[in-house]
Every structure is written in structure tokens, then in C-alpha cells.
Amino acid sequence: MSEEVKKENTNAKDLTAEIKDLVVEFRTDYGVVQALNSMELEIERGKTLGLVGETGAGKTTTGLSLLRLIPDPPGVIVKGSIKLDGKDILSMSDKEMQDIRGKAVAMIFQDPMTSLDPVMTVENQIAEVIKLHEEGGMEHALTRAREMLELVGIPGSRGSEYPHQFSGGMKQRVVIAMALACNPELLIADEPTTALDVTIQAQVLEMMKGLREKYNTSMLMITHDLGIVAEICDKVSVIYAGHVIEHGTLVDIFKNTRHPYTEGLFNSLPNLENRTAELKPIKGLMPDPSNLPKGCAFCPRCDYAMEICKTEKPKRVYRNDTHYVECHLYNEDNIQEGKVSIR
Amino acid sequence: MSNTAAVHENEQISIKKKSQIVDVWKRLCRNKTAVLGLIIVAILVLIAIFAPIVLDYENQVIKTDYGNALKAPCAAHPFGTDEMGRDILVRVLYATSTSLSIGVVTVIVSLTVGLILGSAAGYFGGKVDMIIMRIMDIFLAIPGILLAICIVASLGNSIINLVIAQAVSAVPTFARVVRGAVMTVRDAEYVEAARAIGAKDSTIIFHDVLPNSLAPIIVQTTLQVASVILSIAGLSFIGLGIPAPRPEWGAMLSASRAYIRDYSYMCLFPGAAIMITILSLNLLGDGLRDALDPRLR
Amino acid sequence: MIKFIVKRLLALIPVLIGVSLLVFFILDLAPGDPAKTILGEQARPEDIAALREEMGLDDPFLVRYGRYMFDLVQGDLGTSYKTKDPVGEEVWARLPNTFKLALTSTVVAILLALPLGVIAAIKQNTLFDGISMFISLLGISMPVFWMGLLLIMFFSVKMGWFPVAGADQGIKSLVLPSIALGFMHMASIARTTRSSMLETIRQDYIRTVRAKGLPEREVITDHALRNALIPTTTVIGLQIGSMLGGSVLTESVFAWPGIGRYMVQSIQGRDIPSVMGCIIIFALSFALINLLVDLIYGFIDPRIKAQYK
Predict the structure, then answer these.
(1) Closest chain A C-alpha to C282 CA, distance in angstroms
(2) Quick one: DSSP state of residue B296?
(3) H or E segment to which residue C65 belongs
(4) Residue A36 has pLDDT above 90, yes or no
(5) pTM of the model
(6) Cβ distance C269 to C84 under 8 Å?
(7) Which residues of B touch C279 (CB under 8 A)?
(8) Where residue B117 falls among pLDDT bands split at 50, 70, 90?
(9) Which of C136, C146, C184 to substitute to test the interface with B, most B CBs within 10 Å?
(10) pLDDT at res. C6
(11) Quick one: average pLDDT of B222-251?
């Protein structure tokens, strides 16, 4: 398939959010860190995209960039475009951006323990976002806030309590209630269950699924947990060192894994069918983001690395309409065949 | 064999200690304002040491010369002369020695007492802690300078009484800081280990607990020198400090009050001397805090 | 809440007993004979002996202390050696002046320090930040009495805007003493506000609030500042002691007719009962203001309020 056709296809999609060629740097006294490296991302309306990668790969930065909340200083958007509903948010005024935050796009943050203001009652914290984006004043906002609490399974009467009186799981529900309060078109969930017990994780995920269906919300699910991806996502982008290296539908990624890094992620999961099988963690660590390799960023840790990987960035190769990979192992001819064995 | 191993271990420990000090030093040097503070403190210490040697106390510092009284700053008297014709520069320099030495002596005394009381309270806990800290609470219930005023007012003003007054009001602060520091390390594993091999309480306190709670104590010591110098100046200002004619900054300021209308230069230099001293000690103290405990940054 | 206050007030009693015992003991060490002080150096020995007998000066220490405390709980602070007036009346007459000075300087300090600290934190590493932190550093290093002298020198002597001393020109008299006393506290409150704001601004919950679409101004005032006030209040509380001490010096510089100046005059006149009364009043105010700060603390931080029940 030629590039031309591909482009048309992209345009035809109804995209809630689109990031193109985004480069973000963190400039500190100790050097420049490349947080995002020509990052790309597409979220279709009503669908959920999983953003998968290790700690430090740039997942949270990507999420924050959609709200234009990358901490500045030290974060600087060097180039690229971020569009919400087709509108470029980088050229918007602060006021326009404030109208989008919490209303069109809402975010659930990673750590519920520290994400709530300790000196404000939870109902006031939820009401704050409603009051900002809906008519009807404080009275209405408070009523709605209590409704939202009920919706996430917390008695509305507990709204007048402070965050320190809630457990971790309940705090996360409050954060979710806050994010959903104004029926956002796009919900960014940054590892929403990492800080929770496994049993509560399942409850929270179920709840998010239900709410997504009810309001037809698009979602960006940031996680390193492939189990959560399988459960809730429609498409998956695998991100490494601030760049998408493989992207596809659930079936593409889970059944037709191509990139050695994605394969490594699967191999480092315990295998329930074969419990004696050894875990195969990916060797080495993320490359120093202030000093990325010249060629493929994964090259130093890759079992299949070739000479070309050290010097040249791999091009994008499509397996089908939805699935692409960026790796020197593949070209138009061998991409359909499956995994390339070691030379 | 085991002997050499022990020696080797000892060497390693001393190397480790040295490298820690080097680390702190390096961090301190990276902090520009702290270095500035350190340099000024060093200069002040030099002045304090050499002023009594170089200056003639009887003939330069306290000798009155009414013919030369109240001269504005000029080449012969860069800071001018006071109401008794004494050179203000000479007196300011000499007073450095008085203030600094009283400050240091007071802090050494109160630190020693504070260390004993605080480490006993922190290490033993329970009743010992309760009794010591309740008594300290009573001292802390009176603002420090008022307690000092009270003591000097009763005992009369002499240098010894000043030191006692300041030390008494500084002890509770030290005891508190030491107690807090000791309590945080008391339950650390290396202390438990020492206890498990049967070390004596005093050995544990002086060999294991105190060296590991040094950071806040050092910082508090630096800041306390500043605070003692400040309150000596304050006491002298209200006539309860160093007895005349020995020069003291606060007393000089107090004397300048009567001449503020026509000879205002008199109140500039002693005040500036206090400010520079306190400022440099504060800068150094802040810098030490940052350098000793990088986590606090 | 009321239960908490009552509990705290009850806990004050042993501390105040300890304080009075301590101060009584220290002042008892004073050399010289109070009877002689009252009657003058030329008094006849038998008159002095008679007065000693009448005042019970030869009783054991604890008896004298007990008598003093017995009077104290009835509101009697003893009789001044100098004026022969009740110390309680003398102190009571001067208390409003000291209170006025302490209150205005605290209010001025807080009103100036909070915006200064907040703006310095928001504009970290700018010129504004540098200048305001330099001023604050000067503030914590300048002795309050020198600051007072400089203010008098410039604004009273040179410009003639304010009186040099005293309290007889109303607000005008209050301006310079308040600035002198307030400056030091302004400085340290501003420093703490700045550093706690810097810490707070980086917290996750501030990011959450921004993600709600709250305008930056309100992010700062409604969330960051409220949280930053918690450590700031602690510092204000810790400063009360130096504030009271500073007020003694400030009152001396400006001849301000408050308790501090009365105490200094009493010391110079060796008027022990007056000194004792002043220190008792200072210690009592110190304790009560500390309690007040603790209550304010609970008002700001619900986590602490929960412990008050």
C-alpha cells in the first residue's frame, strides 16, 4: 500500500486526539533529556488506545502533552502538533486551554495518594471542576459532585470528608469521579490501578469500562500491564524512549507480535499455562534519555541487533492497515511471514 | 589473620568517614552564598583573634580623649569617634573579639549540657525522657531573651553571668534538637546490633548514636552562635550586657542613641557589624544544612 | 474542639507553675536587700529589720514562693518597690500598648510576607525572587533595635514624618515601631512561604487541579497557598518567642510605653516584683498565643483538626 492511500485513510478516521511528530525535551542544569522523540498517537472516537512501555519511556509525558500540562520549566515542546477534535492545541490561548482541561479532556493520575488536595473536602474538589465547566453555580455543582461519588460507589454523604479519611482505592475512585464529572470526550488514564491492591484493581477497571460504555468516551490507557491492555483496549501503541515502535489492534499486537521489544514485554510476563517456563526479562535498562543511541534506540538491548541498527533509524513497515512496526528486521516482503529467526 | 582484617576494616571506616567530610565540603563549596558566608566568618574569626593582639586595649580601645570627641569619619578615624573621643573603628574591631568569643563559649557550654540531657532523654526514653523534657518545656515557656534578661537582671551584668544567662536559655533548644536526632537513629539497625553484642549504653550513645545524628546538631550550633551574638547585643543595648568600658556593638549602639540627631554616623557601624556577623553565620548555617542533608533540598 | 482547648489550658497550669518557680528562684538570687531598696540606703537598721519581718523576707524560700503564688491566683502580682503601687495595675495599664504593637507588627509582617513569598516562589530565579530573598536575608540578620535606630534616623530626624519616640501621636507613633518589629518577622515568614510554596507547587495535587482547567491564579490562591500555609504557620508560631523578646527591645528604642519598657526600667531600678510580674505576663501571653496558633493550624489543616477531638 502506498503512502498516499495511507494518508487518506488517516483523514477519514474520526479522531478525538492526534499527536504528530512531537518532540519534547526536558532542559535542566544537568543536560537535555529527550522525553518524547517524534511521538505519534491517534485515538479514535469511542475507542481506547493502550500506551505501553517501561517506566521512563515517556508515557506520562504523552498524556500530559494532550492537556498541555508538561511542566515548564524544564519541559519544552520543540516541534510537532497536538490536535484535539482536529484543532491544534499548541496555538491556543491559556483561556481556551483552561476550557478544554477537565471538560473535553480529563486525566486520571497515577498516584491517588498524592493526587488530591489534602486540605479540601472531596465533594468540593469534584464540584470545583463542575462549577468551572457547567452552568448552575455552586449549589448545582455540589449536588452533581455527590451524584458522581455515588456513581463510583462512594456514599454521597462522605463527600464532606477530607482525602486523609479515605483509603487508597476510594481516593482513586474520587479521582476518577473528578475526571468523569464533566463527561469528557477523552479520558487519559495514567496507570489508574498501579497503586491499588489487585482486588481493587479489578473493581476499578470494571467501573471504568462501564462508564466508558455509558458515555461513549474515548480513552488513552497508559500502563505497563499487558493484562489491562488485553482487557480494555482496542488498539495498542508500544512506546520506547519516547517513540512508538509498534502499533496495531489488540490482535495485531498480541497474536502477530513483530518488534523484538514487544516480544520482550510478553516474555517477561509469567506464563500461566507453563508455570515451569523461566521468565525472560529484557536485558539491560532503558537508554540514558539525555544520550540516545544514534540508530534504533532499542539496539543495545536487542537480541537480533544488526550492524545497520547501530547507525540508522529503522523505517516504518506496515503489516496491514492497522499494524506497523519500526525495526530493521522487517521489510515489505517479509513482514507477513511472522517472526524473523536469528540469522 | 583476623587482626589484619580488623585493621583493614578500621582503615576502611576512616576512609569512609573522610570521604563523607569531603563530600559535604564539596557540596558546601558548590553553594555560592554558603561560601560567601564561610569567607566572612573566617575573616571575622581572624579579626577576633588578632584584634586583642594588635590593638592596645588600655591606650587605643578604652582611653578617653574628649578633645577628639564626636569627630565624623575622616582619614584618621575612618568610622569617626564616639562621645568620649574613642576611635569607633578600633572599638568595632575589638568588639568582634568579645562577641565572637562569648558566642562560641556560650554555645560550647550549652551544647555540652544540651548533648548530655538530649541524648539521655532520646536514648533512654520513658521516664527519663519525660522528666528531662518537661523541665526543658518550662525553660522553653519563657522566650529565650526574656529568660536571659531575667538571669542577668538578678545576677548582675558581668561576662560570666552573660554566658550563664545565654547558655541557660540555649540549652533547651539543643536538648530538643539532640533528642530528636537521637530518637531517629536510636532504633536504627546498627544501634540494635551494637546492643545485641552487649555494648554499654554510654558506648552506644557516643560511638554510634551521636556521630550519626551530627548533621542537625552542627547546623543548630552555627545558627545558635548567631542567635547568642544577637541577644548579647540586645542585652547590652538595654544596659544588661558587657559592662563598660569594654566595647560591645549593642552597647555602642545604645550610647549612639543620644547623638542620633547630629552624629548619626555613630549608629551605623556597630549595627552593620552585627548585621554582617549574623548574616554570614546564617548563610553558613543554611549552606551547612543543605550540604549535610541533601535530602532536604 | 472546646474539649481540646480546655485540655490545653489545663496542661498550661503545671508549665506556668514551673515557670513562676523558676523565675522566682532566679530573681531570689539577686544580691541586695529588698527592704533596703524600699527604704533607701540611709534607713535605720531597725526599720529595715522591721520591714523584713513585715514582708516575710526571712521565711524559707518555698514559703515565700507559696505566698506569692497564693496572691498571684487572686490576680495580685505584688507591690512595686519603687512606686509602691500594685504591679498588676502597672502591668495592666501598659498591656494594651504592647498588645497593639505586637498585633500591628504581626499583621503587617504577614500581609507583606505572604505575597512576597508567593510571588518569589512563582517567579523563582527571577530578579524579583533574588531581590526579595536578599531583603528577607537582611531582615533576619538585622538586630531589631538597629533597624529601629535607622528608621528613627531617617524618617523621624531627617524627614520629620514620624515622632522619634513615645506613643502620644496615635497611629503616627505606631508606624515606625511596627515596621521595626515587623520587618524581622516579615523576612522569615517570607522565606518560609517561598520555600513551602516551591515545594507545594510541585505536588501531584496541584497538577490535578490544573488538569481541571482552573485558572492559574486560583490554582495558586485556592490550593497551593492554602497548603503552603501549614509550614508557614509553624514558623509564625515558632517566632512568637523572639517576637515578644523583640518587643522588649523595640519598646526600649522607641520609648514605647509597654510592658517591655516597664520591665527594663524595673530591672534598672532593681524593682524585683515588677520584673517578676512582667515575666509572668510574658510567659502567660506566650503560652496563650501558642495555643491560638495551634488552633489556627487545625483550621488550615483538616488532618490536624481531626486530632483535636
Answers:
(1) 34
(2) G
(3) helix C61-73
(4) no
(5) 0.79
(6) no
(7) 142, 146, 150
(8) very high
(9) C146
(10) 87
(11) 86
Enumerate the residues of chain C whose CB falls inside 8 A of the CB of residue A116: 205, 208
> How many CB atoms within 10 Å of residue C187?
24
Strand partners, C200: none
Q: For B192-198, which contacts have Cβ atoms below 8 Å and span 24 or more sequence positions?
A: none
Lay out the sheet containing A316-318: strands in order across. A105-108, A186-190, A218-223, A48-52, A235-240, A243-249, A324-326, A316-318
- The Cα B160–Cα B165 span in angstroms is 9
Q: What is the pLDDT of residue B18?
A: 62
Angle at A91 between CA A89 and CA A93, to 5 degrees: 90
Q: Where are the alpha helices (DSSP H) in A32-81?
A: 59-66
- Say if residue C31 is preceded by a cis peptide, omega within 30 of 0: no
**B141/A316 Cα distance (integer angstroms):** 74
Task: Report how far residue B252's alpha carbon sits from residue B52's, in angstroms, rounded to the nearest whole number.
Answer: 18
Residue A174 corresponds to which amino acid?
A: V
At A1, the pLDDT band (50, 70, 90 cuts) reads very low
Strand partners, C79: C86
User: What pLDDT digit, counting tens, does each position of C136-148 carry?
Assistant: 988 889 999 999 9
Q: Are the C-beta atoms of B33 and B287 separated by less than 8 Å?
A: yes
User: Residue C143, SS3?
Assistant: coil
Residue B141 has pLDDT above 80, yes or no: yes
Q: How far apart are the first and last CA of chain B?
A: 45
pLDDT in tens, A228-286: 888 888 899 999 888 888 998 988 888 888 888 888 888 877 766 666 767 777 777 77
**CA distance readout (Å), A56 to A39, A41, A110, A305:** 14, 17, 14, 22
HSE, CB side, 13 Å, CA atoms: give it for residue C101: 33
Residue B96: in which H helix or E strand, if any?
Answer: helix B88-124
CATH 1.10.3720.10 at B31-296, yes or no: yes
Interface test with C, best of B138, B228, B248 (most C CBs within 10 A): B138
**Cis bond upstream, residue B245 (ω within 30):** yes
A213 C-beta neighbours (distance < 10 Å), count: 10
Q: Is residue C143 within 8 Å of residue B250, measured between CB atoms?
A: yes
A138, A131 contact by CB (below 8 A): yes
Q: Tell me the chain C residues in contact with residue A100 when contact means C-beta distances shorter than 8 Å.
A: 213
Q: What angle do CA B2, B4, B5 make, to 5 degrees?
A: 60
| Domain range list for chain B | 31-296
Nearest-CA residue of chain C relative to B164? Answer: C26
- Give the H or E element holding residue A17: strand A15-28
Q: Please report which residue ranges of C77-126 form alpha helices under DSSP H.
A: 87-122
Count the residues in chain B: 297
Q: In this structure, how many other beta carbons lie within 10 angstroms of the beta carbon of residue B30?
A: 12
